[in-house]
Amino acid sequence: MKQLRNFLKLSGSDHSLLAITFILLGAIRLGLFFLAFRNLLKLLQKINQQNIRFPCSTQKSQISVGKIVWAVNVATRYTPGGAKCLARALTTQFLMNRYHYSSELRIGVAKEQGGQLEAHAWIEYQGWVAIGNLPDLSRFIPMPSLEGVKL
């Protein structure tokens, strides 16, 4: 009940951003399940390049990076089964690109104590981790950036 009251207290633009983020996060989760990663990235780029307006499309200054990260975190909390770091990072990057913030998707790998490889994805913005920060993020060795790579 408290969550519903908190939701109702949000502004109209926050409702729209949250709804879009929730739908986008679900679509990206499905895309990660059904599409090759490369094809999903191509599709997201193609959608971003088209001039489709979101209901909450406003000036860059009205949707901050912090607000985008907030929306992804809240949408993740209410997504059945949650969302893994890659889906969260891709959703954040898509929204940041949409609002003209340049960000970089980083994917790192690390070896667990048992010897198995572990991967993690995060988004960097202006030299700091916008989403996907972990207390032990430094143990992940970042893979080469996908920036400028022809998909």
UniProtKB/TrEMBL annotation:
InterPro entries: McjB-like, McjB_C. The chain crosses the membrane at residues 16-37. The keyword Transmembrane applies. Keywords: Membrane, Transmembrane, Transmembrane helix. Residues 33-143 form the Microcin J25-processing protein McjB C-terminal domain. This is Lasso peptide biosynthesis B2 protein.
